[in-house]
Amino acid sequence: LAPTFYVFFKQLILGNRVMKRLAVITGGASGIGKATALKFAENNCHVIVVDQNAALADDLMKEFEANGLVGEFYECDVTNPTAVDRTFDAIADCHRNLDYAVNAVGGGIAEARGTLEDIEYKQWQRELDLNLSSTVLCMRREIKMMMGEQRSSIVNISSIAGLGAAGSNPAYTAAKHALIGLSRQSAMECAPNLIRVNTVCPGVVLTPLLVDSFGENNEFLEQMGKTNMLGRVARPEEIAEPIYWLCSEGASFITGAVIAVDGGGSAYSFK
Q: Would you say 194 and 150 are in contact if contact means Cβ atoms under 8 Å apart?
């Protein structure tokens, strides 16, 4: 597996004298993942983007290079256990330890929409693989790479759908609830090794996936904005900020937490 490298010329000259913390961002080529990858890179991290979309990831690496940021890309379908192991084997060959991991892979599958009695089991499983099992597969390897570090942090991206019933996709809702439980369980198991695990639950975010699904429809975005107290949809950068903070020393006593970044939408009693 050959990664694409874009590295500072300065770092090539100085070698080990330039010490950067290492962050892995899954689903890092677009949307919340991309904003998060840029946030970490802008804060002196060497960022590894793991994504299935090689074209988007290549564009991001070019953006890194143009802005003097340090990163590399591994193409991987994180729902495939063999591919995940192969990818993390390659990462471990190049990097001894991992400081931060953000698992941002996820999304709704159109074929899985409907009621519980209508959904086909195959589509149910696809949704769980994308939104839950992918994180399980990556976390197993991320935690292994974090052992021996003084302090490390994992942030998993759930959704406001993980905090209550939402829409018409029972598998997506179930997966996002389960992801919160997985994060809390992992926080307990990892605490003796000083690995913190937290969850961020975004509301409606203006990502390429949202635009692809519904178009840049102002009326639709206005309706989505009415689902929260602030009356608008979020920008991906507004989700990346708390993700980065949870990995920082400012959040050093926070683990097992669930933070809704949803404009107050999940705080409503009635809408």
A: yes
pLDDT, tens digit (0-9, with 9 covering 90-100), for 154-166? 999 999 999 998 7
Helix (H, G, I), strand (E, B) or coil at 260: strand
Q: Model pTM?
A: 0.89
172 catalytic? Reply is yes
pLDDT in tens, 59-68: 999 999 999 9
b/e map 98-109, b = 16+ CB within 10 Å: bbbbbbbbbbbb
Burial of 8 (0-12, 13-18, 19+ CB in 10 A): middle
Catalytic: which of 74, 100, 172, 244?
172
- Structural contact between residues 51 and 28, judged by C-beta atoms closer than 8 angstroms: yes
Residue 133 DSSP class: I
C-alpha span between 112 and 114 (Å, rounded): 7
Contacts of 3 (CB under 8 A, 6+ apart): 48, 72, 73, 74, 90, 94
Give the span between the Cα atoms of 109 and 169, in whole angstroms: 8
Which residue(s) pair with 25 in the sheet?
49, 102
**What residues are paired with 23 via a beta bridge?**
47, 100
Q: Where are the alpha helices (DSSP H) in the chain?
A: 9-14, 31-42, 54-66, 81-94, 121-128, 134-146, 170-190, 208-214, 218-225, 236-247
How many CA atoms does the CB half-sphere of 165 hold within 13 Å? 4
